[in-house]
Amino acid sequence: MSTTGSPLTSPVIQPSADNPHAAGRPFWLLAELTYKCPLQCSYCSNPLDLSGSGTELTTDQWLSVFEQGRKMGAAQLGFSGGEPLLRRDLEVLIREARQMGYYTNLITSGLGMDDRRVSDFRDAGLDHIQVSFQASTEELNNQLAGSQKAFAQKLAMAREVKAQGYPMVLNFVIHRDNIEQIDKIIELSIELQADFVELAIAQYYGWAFINRAHLLPTKAQLIKAEAITNQYRDQLDGRGPKLIFVTPDYYEERPKGCMNGWGNIFLTIAPDGTALPCHSARELPIQFPNVKDEALADIWYRSTGFNHFRGYEWMKEPCRSCDEKEKDFGGCRCQAFKLTGDAANADPVCSKSAHHGKIVAARTEAEQLAAGVAPSSPLLARNKRNQQAAVDIIARG
Amino acid sequence: MIRAEQIPVMNRLYRMQWEESQQSHVLLYPEGMVQLNGSAGEIMALVDGTRSGADIIAALEQKFPEAGDLGADIIEFLGVAHEHNWITFD
Ligand code: SF4
Ligand code: SF4
Fold first, then answer.
1. What is the CA radius of gyration of chain A?
2. Which CA distances in Å does A131 have to A158, A160, A161, A162, A288?
3. Which of A302, A167, A353 is nearest to A242 (CA)?
4. Contact between A335 and A281 (Cβ < 8 Å)
5. For A57-72, what is the mean pLDDT?
6. Is the Cβ–Cβ distance between A161 and A168 less than 8 Å?
7. What is the pTM assigned to this prediction?
8. A179, A181, A170, A306: which is closest to A242 by C-alpha?
9. Which residue of A10, A59, A249, B78 is 20 to 30 Å from A135, comparing CA positions?
10. Phi and psi torsions of A336, nearest 5°
11. Which residues of B touch A72 (CB under 8 A)?
12. Mutate which of A2, A4, A106 to disrupt the B interface (most B C-beta within 10 Å)?
């Protein structure tokens, strides 16, 4: 008895007729139950079109997806959105999924929850609840969320989640307007007895992309926030919440190995049943398959959408001949598309990309705005009223 | 140092189960998973909050008589599991 356990590693898989691109298993299944949400976060990564592109899947359609996914080796199931609590069948979905053997994660804003639901979910077998906060103070939180009652509700629900014995993750999306409060955010998380705290610097997809100039922190802010996080880590010394600081790739010279490789571990199902290799892939000019029309195994292993960026043959220069391509797979396809117009290009975060200047320009803009220069586009809360304005900004480029 | 009479208890953050598709025991936790090898899985499967380290050793020595004396290895593993926070002691 020598070794103990290994963290998740993908075993070497050989191509076969059923799995022509030697894809890994969809270990992580993310069920975006609805795009509806009572909040209006400007950093939301949901698509600009708030109505989604079709009707939401029914309870039975979701259960069929879960069952197929489980057979294919999915072990983690996330219920997210929008706000998943808006689905009245959530308890049924949790109960059935848990019985199939999933580790069930509820990713919520806390709005629409009460003690009763927390306990009903517990009885249904829910394993973990992640509550998102916008900030550590009532005023800023509610302003960012676009709701007067959000903060009080979140506090009450986070306490309830712990009181009922769940593991709890708190998620804070960090951006220019709350990054200076990171110490207070960490203190709040300690007080709420979180098990993990995600301090995730905003990523720029969906609504967050059109609001990027308002969200991207400056380099100086970032360095300071990371240093403060490290101080708390030292101070906590293994006690209290585990702090997870997710750095933004906009200040890197190499991209992240996005989603551990395209169509390799993650499978997202959008509210209308569209299957996606990551939750922002909907923004790509690719026709993705729908679970209403095809079996999940066909979608995952054999659809054109999922095979599009598997392997390395699709790559262009500089990635094609780059010796780092097995590390980062050329970065994020969505970011490449958004910033260069071609999803097969290198992610412009990479300093080898001919478009890296776009990232540098965004950094400069962040500095200027922080120094008081007027922004070229308004900050748009995620709501119906702003939807057209958001679409126009994208159309203008 | 872990003592054989201590009773390991699974940390609430983790849930262990047999994963058919991986033919192994895994520890699942918020948004993650640890795959256990055969012997680690055998030990963890016996952690139920009532058995002591000594009980686990006895049970596994009985299950695998040809393996000989397993005490030191099992205690060592429980130490590692404790370090990883998978288990606590009563
Ligand atoms: S980021 Fe905000 S607006 Fe978007 S789904 Fe989450 S809580 Fe709702
Ligand atoms: S050139 Fe492409 S593969 Fe090489 S480091 Fe940059 S993004 Fe990664």
1. 21
2. 7, 11, 9, 11, 30
3. A167
4. no
5. 97
6. yes
7. 0.89
8. A170
9. A249
10. -60, -45
11. 21
12. A4
CA nearest to A197 within chain B: B30
Average pLDDT over residues A83-109: 96
> Would you place residue A12 in the very low, low, confident or very high pLDDT band (cuts 50, 70, 90)?
low
Question: What residues does A266 pair with on adjacent strands?
Answer: A28
Start-to-end CA span in chain B (Å): 15
Query: Model confidence over B28-86: pLDDT tens digits?
Result: 999 889 999 989 999 999 999 999 999 999 999 999 989 889 999 999 999 999 999 89
Find all residues with CB under 8 Å of A270, minimum gap 6, and list them. A32, A35, A52, A276, A279, A282
Q: Is B25:B39 a contact under the CB 8 Å cutoff?
A: no
The overall average pLDDT reported for chain A is: 87
Q: How far apart are the first and last CA of chain A?
A: 59
**Cα A194–A198–A203 angle (5° rounding)?**
155
Cβ pairs A/B, distance under 8 A: 75
Helices A90-99 & A59-71 angle (0-180, nearest 10): 20
Please, which residues have CB within 8 angstroms of residue A120's CB and are 6 or more apart in sequence?
Answer: A91
DSSP per-residue string spanning A201-238: E---SHHHHHTHHHHPPPHHHHHHHHHHHHHHHHHHTT
Residue A198: other Cβ atoms inside 10 A: 20
- Ligand nearest to the backbone CA of A350: 2
Report pLDDT digits (tens) over A209-227: 777 877 888 889 999 999 9
Which 93-122 residues of chain A touch chain B by CB within 8 A? Answer: 101, 103, 105
Tokens standing for residue A113: 């929850």
Strand, helix or coil for residue A270: coil
